[in-house]
From TrEMBL, chain C:
It is found in: Cell membrane. The chain crosses the membrane at residues 86-108, 117-138, 169-191, 212-237, 271-292. Belongs to the binding-protein-dependent transport system permease family. CysTW subfamily. This is ABC transporter permease. Keywords: Cell membrane, Membrane, Transmembrane, Transmembrane helix, Transport. It comes from the Bacteria. Residues 82-288 form the ABC transmembrane type-1 domain. It is a multi-pass membrane protein. InterPro entries: MetI-like, MetI-like_sf.
Length: 324, 404, 302
């Protein structure tokens, strides 16, 4: 999964609409626009669409939601199929979760894949989050040429297709960093590289919208630099840090290319790799069950994060993810 | 790790690098920096058997050692190419967990053998790469004292041309390459069965093997050319062009899962290995009879045959147990059980065609899947090529894969 | 903001110290690996193991393989692959715009009370594994799957459509389906930031809703549209698994498939690495265009 680039990463989104601070683009002369653009061919000034258009749009949006989620729901449904088919419904059963010799519970390779995916995602989150937060803080406050270069470098992974990054990491681990064995160690390193920039971008945009006044005030009141960070900036950053961690977790769970390039043997197969190879080899509803369990894992992580964040302004954290 | 500049690769450095690039182009690559160890790797042929050299720094494991216990016995194999039950029983017997890592091409297998950090105890190389990987010290010589069951192997493969004296390998399975099809959807099988794959009637349901050598050999054999080990650039390229006809003609797909695709009906015709069709019998959906499966292999004319072998990587952590595993697979009863799972015929003398039909392993229609020592003798094998020729085959295959 | 704290900050070693680990990380695990790709591309392949032998010293770089790839991309067998990739990405992106823009627009401007729910539903695919979502379609698109059932029942087709048999339409639809969530979200956030007052002003000045859209909303969202297109198109260029899953035929081979073939199979890894370099160069050119164009779009707004 590649996440969107920040709106305007180099400058940061200073004018935060939520805090009501106005943006410089507040009042462009609306009338000058038509002069720049070719005159529209609007035949009648009648406002017939003012109310009707949203109906069309609403239909389209709901259709889109159906299109994007229905197939997945059907796939989940088939994980409960009593038969072996993945295309015709033969009654409800839990055999693909447990009971059948090929079920997730009975097939050690499926269980292993599930465990690998979760462990990898947790390790990646634990490494990438602090690394990214520190980098964001450093880059936001440290001015200079080196800082600008580092900033540009940090954005490059976001603009790199996974096959490029995956093959580059594969080549470097097999030819240069020979002390890093392929498998989980290499996968963690790769996933952190893939996702650390998300944390940086989210945290930086939050830092920019907080501004530096609180910190300056704390410093003026006698707090040390580190104390100001710890007591003032971190609490304000918490939602962004959580949002970043969640994105890292999700992108690690989602990643197929890097995990697969860096997986030398069966012991480091993750769920996406298992799904990919099994879809090509011997698909069975057990795969749907595996995918459903992974989905449940993600949902659980999301719900957990939500509960944790409730006290700290959960909606704020979700909003943090929106600009991503 | 070479020392790298502390500062990031900024624009100026890129410019310097591109300057260097121009310089490099000017002086050209220095061929003396490329050691050519490969010149010494012999190309084995049935009429030119090869005894693979031993290396003093890669000794065979000493005799009469106790088997290693505990942990994992790691196999490196094609997917679904060994019975999980056979593995499980062996593991229980010896107190280890048998773990299978899979690959889909020999290159992938070699890459995994070479990659640091992971070691495997048993691998399944094809004869065309055995000379290379033994010269590259990826395999360890076998100690035949641990392999009493070796005597069960086909006579022809007890001292094979690709590994005289069976120094590094023992044979695993034998197979032919032909065309699997759904007999209920293919009305007539032409005398040249390869034509099935060129028949637009099966558009979208037509598959060939995902293998450069097999695919291009198919295009040659269809035209009765038997130069499947040629090093002639023009012939190889021509095969690629012939194969590319399939793209528009049938929207040909590429895969190695004929056993499933033909059984389930996703493929109507599929170039495949004989074992795939035997195996397909157990993949049939409920209510579909086994006689819908057909397998065509040239009768009388030479077709492709092959064997797979078993070997022990140099880095094996359980070499004694690995030998015992090899021996286990050469036991006729175990081989039979394994056969019933993989569908691939072990090269074991006691498992005869008559026995296979009598035991109900294959239907009448699938009798053509059986490999006899005679078919093996007469068949064409896809053998090791010189590196430049290998590159030509790969390029022709890439040309086909690129589509039009 | 006063200048004094800025000066104080600059003196502090804390900030570089905080930035250092992350920067070093990206250097070691992004920049150096990229150099490794170049070293492989300009090196050669060990013929015994079919393994790359990278050439770390630029003085000895051998450009033969890269030249070969370049030549084959311009006039040889890779040319149709590049053209096909561009076509697929282009059409998929167009689909993303056609479907994604109205959805993002509705979500940002008209969703009203249901906005929270809709947003959650639109964000949901982010949390669902990409391969899982493809797997879902694979089930539906079987010859006897639900999609064909539906088409047959509605008499739109006389016999089942063979979606999964090297069908380029399936690949394009699958790509669009796979990447559209990444298109909608950044666009949504831009559209959400379009100042309501501008639209009111436009209407007060006699603009119809439609004209207001064309003359205010659309130009204001151009930057977001381009960002969304960039984040959607870039990964599509590197996608090899989607078409392998839904087609698996040479009729639909994309650039990344050939990269995978040369890097993981094949006996000349330098060709694969060269192809990675070439693709990266192409994408960098696209990125540069995006940065320049979006910079211009941003300037026009201010």
């Amino acid at each position: 999964m590649i996440l969107p680039l920040p709106e305007n990463p180099s400058t940061g989104d200073r004018g935060d609409h939520r805090t009501g601070r106005s943006r410089p683009r507040e009042n462009p002369p609306a009338r000058s626009r038509p002069a720049e653009n070719p005159p529209a061919r609007s035949r009648s000034p009648r406002r017939r669409s003012a109310r009707r258009r949203p109906i069309v749009l609403a239909t389209l949006t709901w259709l889109y939601v159906a299109w994007s989620l229905l197939p997945v729901l059907i796939a989940i449904q088939f994980s409960f199929n009593a038969g072996k088919s993945r295309s015709s419904w033969q009654g409800f059963s839990l055999r693909w979760y447990a009971g059948d010799p090929n079920s997730v519970a009975a097939d050690p390779s499926l269980r292993l894949a599930l465990a690998n995916s979760l462990i990898l995602a947790v390790l990646t989150t634990l490494v990438a989050t602090p690394l990214g937060v520190a980098l964001a803080l450093g880059l936001a406050r440290w001015r200079g040429r080196t800082s600008r270069t580092a900033n540009g470098l940090m954005l490059l992974p976001l603009a790199t297709p996974e096959i490029v990054m995956g093959s580059a990491l594969y080549l470097v681990f097999t030819n240069l960093y020979l002390f890093v064995p392929l498998g989980r160690p290499a996968q963690v390193l790769g996933h952190v590289t893939l996702s650390v920039s998300y944390v940086v971008v989210i945290v930086r945009s939050r830092l920019a919208s907080i501004g530096e006044e609180y910190e300056s005030a704390a410093r003026d009141l006698g707090a040390g630099r580190v104390a100001a960070l710890r007591l003032v900036v971190f609490p304000l950053l918490t939602p962004a840090i959580f949002a970043g961690a969640m994105i890292v977790f999700a992108s690690s769970m989602d990643d197929f290319v890097i995990s697969s390039f860096l997986s030398p043997d069966a012991s480091s197969v993750t769920v996406p790799i298992k799904l990919y190879s099994a879809v090509r080899n011997a698909p069975s509803p057990a795969l749907n069950a595996l995918a459903t369990l992974l989905l449940a894992g993600s949902a659980l992580a999301l719900a957990l994060a939500w509960l944790v964040l409730r006290r700290r302004g959960a909606s704020d954290a979700l909003k943090q993810m929106a600009p991503m | 790790m070479p020392s790298h500049p502390r500062e990031p690769l900024d624009r100026r450095r890129f410019l310097v690098a591109s300057g260097l690039l121009g310089l490099a182009a000017a002086c050209g690559a220095d061929p003396s920096r490329r050691p050519s160890a490969t010149a010494s790797v012999p190309l084995s042929r049935p009429d030119r058997p090869v005894q693979l050299p031993l290396h003093t720094d890669v000794p065979a494991v000493a005799s009469k050692r106790p088997p290693e216990a505990g942990g994992k016995l790691k196999l490196l194999n094609y997917p679904e190419y060994i019975s999980p039950d056979v593995c499980k029983k062996f593991g229980e017997e010896h107190g280890v967990e048998v773990e299978v890592t899979t690959f889909t091409t020999m290159d992938e297998m070699v890459a995994k053998l070479r990659t640091g950090g992971e070691s495997f105890d048993v691998c399944f190389p094809t004869p065309d790469i055995i000379a290379k990987i033994s010269a590259g010290k990826l395999l360890q010589p076998l100690n035949h004292n641990y392999l009493p069951n070796f005597a069960n192997v086909w006579l022809q493969l007890r001292d094979p041309f690709y590994d005289n004296g069976s120094r590094y390998t023992v044979p695993y399975n034998a197979y032919t390459t032909g065309v699997g099809y759904r007999a209920d959807r293919v009305t007539t099988v032409p005398s040249n069965g390869y034509e099935l794959l060129w028949d637009p009637a099966y558009k979208g349901k037509s598959y060939i093997l995902d293998d450069a050598r097999e695919g291009l050999a198919l295009a040659m054999l269809r035209r009765n050319l038997t130069s499947v080990n040629t090093e002639d650039a023009a012939r190889i390229r021509q095969a690629g062009v012939w194969l590319s006809e399939l793209i528009d003609l049938t929207h040909v797909k590429i895969g190695i899962n004929a056993y499933q695709l033909v059984a389930e009906g996703q493929a109507t015709v599929h170039q495949c290995w004989s074992g795939d069709m035997v195996n397909a019998q157990s993949y049939l959906p409920k209510g579909v009879k086994a006689d819908v499966l057909g397998y065509w292999y040239p009768d009388g004319a030479p077709g492709v045959v092959g064997t797979d072998s078993l070997a022990i990587p140099r880095t094996a952590t359980k070499p004694v147990l690995a030998h015992m595993f090899l021996d286990h697979l050469l036991d006729p009863a175990v081989a039979q059980e394994n056969f019933s799972y993989t569908g691939y015929q072990p090269a074991i003398a006691s498992i005869t065609p008559e026995k296979m039909v009598a035991d109900g392993f294959v239907t009448e229609a699938l009798k053509s899947t059986i490999v006899t020592p005679e078919i093996y003798e007469r068949g064409l094998q896809l053998l090791q090529l010189s590196p430049p020729a290998e590159a030509l085959w790969n390029d022709a295959w890439a040309f086909f894969k690129a589509g039009r | 903001m006063s200048r004094a704290p800025a000066r104080r900050r600059r003196a502090s070693p804390l900030w570089p110290a905080l930035a250092a680990p992350g920067t070093l990380w990206i250097l070691a695990l992004f920049a150096v690996p990229f150099y490794a790709v170049a070293a492989v591309a300009f090196g050669y392949t060990d013929p015994v193991f079919n393994a790359p032998v990278p050439e770390w010293d630029p003085r000895y770089w051998d450009l033969t393989a890269f030249g070969e790839i370049l030549q084959r991309s311009l006039s040889g067998d890779l040319r149709p692959v590049f053209l096909r990739t561009l076509l697929y990405v282009g059409v998929s992106l167009a689909l993303c715009v056609l479907v994604g823009y109205p959805v993002a627009y509705y979500l940002a401007r008209h969703a009203g009370r249901r906005r929270g729910l809709l947003l959650a539903l639109v964000l949901a695919p982010w949390w669902i594994n990409y391969i899982t979502r493809m797997l879902a379609w694979l089930n539906l698109l079987q010859d006897d799957g639900y999609v064909n059932d539906l088409l047959l029942a509605s008499h739109l087709v006389a016999e089942p459509v063979r979606w999964l048999s090297g069908n380029p339409y399936t690949v394009v639809l699958a790509l669009a389906y796979g990447y559209i969530p990444f298109f909608i979200v950044p666009l949504f956030s831009t559209l959400g930031r379009v100042d309501e007052r501008l639209l009111e002003a436009a209407r007060d000045l006699g603009c119809s809703g439609r004209r207001a859209f064309w003359h205010v909303t659309l130009p204001l969202s151009r930057h977001g549209l381009m960002t969304a297109s960039a984040v959607t198109a870039l990964p599509m260029f590197g996608d090899y698994y989607t078409n392998t899953l839904v087609s698996g035929s040479p009729t639909t081979t994309m650039v990344a498939n050939q990269i995978e073939f040369y890097l993981l199979g094949g006996s000349r890894k330098e060709l694969g690495a060269s192809l990675v370099l070439l693709l990266s160069a192409l994408l960098m050119a696209l990125m540069a265009y995006y940065l320049i164009a979006s910079g211009r779009a941003e300037r026009e707004l201010t």
